[in-house]
Design brief:
The complex is a heterodimer of chains A (54) and B (187).
Chain A lengths: L6 H6 L3 H16 L3 H14 L6
Chain B lengths: L9 H29 L8 H19 L17 H5 L1 H14 L9 H11 L6 H24 L3 H31 L1
Helix pairs in contact in B: 1-4, 1-6, 2-5, 2-7, 5-7
The chains are: A mainly alpha (54), B mainly alpha (187).
Chain lengths: 54, 187
């Protein structure tokens, strides 16, 4: 039986939010023409997409 | 195993996780460096051609995630052996992370890493900054999984949530990467 230490912790650390945040940040940095940030975030998206494999 | 709920020594667990993340970032940086070296092979291609190829590969990645095309991609179809961690948790965590961070040591279950790698190869640049940042980002992205699970203290519940959302995560990553690379090509 799972008991969340707190609902806020569970919401913030759930698997889904990071990909949404990274995606939004990547789009925003591309629109802002920030090359360095964009590639860093593209790499992070690629890495996070492998969440299920090790 | 790195965030096993049976562990009670959270400080030690945190240290192993920290070394694992350092390994991920190091492996990712190395992969970025290798891609930078190989990107010189694409130098003879005109810039416009390379931009089209980048977007085409990104689009193929999305179609592959949607199962509309079947493209077998190279991967080292095996997991990092448990013996790496059994010899020594600290050095094993570092090694485990490094091998995963390179992206060539184990299963690659998403098209996104291939798309970003292809984009780096085709973005010929004299500077190593872009490939290095992308590689570090890759390592950081992989680290996010472990960090989120560790901080959630949710264990199996978190794993179940991941299973439910994994397809969407992979698909969303590919779609965003396509959108961003497409926007960069138009600039």
């Amino acid at each position: 039986m799972h008991i969340a230490s707190s609902p806020l912790r569970a919401a913030v650390t759930a698997p889904l939010p990071p990909v949404l945040i990274l995606g939004a940040a990547a789009i925003a940095s591309a629109l802002a023409d920030s090359v360095a940030a964009t590639w860093l975030l593209l790499g992070a998206l690629a890495g996070y997409s492998l969440a299920g494999s090790a | 195993m790195l965030t096993s709920p049976v562990w009670r020594e959270r400080n030690r667990q945190g240290l192993v996780l920290a070394l694992f993340i350092i390994g991920l970032l190091s492996g990712g940086a190395l992969a970025g460096g290798v891609l930078w070296v190989l990107s010189g092979l694409a130098h003879p291609l005109p810039a416009a051609t390379r931009q089209v190829m980048i977007v085409a590969v990104a689009a193929l990645g999305v179609l592959r995630e949607m199962k509309l095309v079947s493209i077998p991609l190279p991967q080292n179809a095996r997991q990092v052996p448990q013996s790496v961690l059994q010899r020594s948790l600290l050095s094993g965590g570092l090694q485990f992370g490094f091998e995963l961070g390179t992206g060539v040591r184990t299963y690659v279950s998403s098209s996104a890493p291939y798309v970003v790698a292809a984009a780096i190869l085709l973005t010929v640049s004299g500077s190593m900054l872009v490939p290095l940042l992308a590689g570090l980002g890759f390592g950081a992205g992989r680290a996010l999984t472990s960090l989120a699970r560790y901080w959630s203290r949710g264990g199996e519940h978190w794993d179940q949530q991941l299973d439910r959302n994994l397809k969407f995560i992979s698909y969303a990553a590919c779609v965003v990467i396509l959108a961003v690379l497409g926007a960069m090509a138009l600039q």
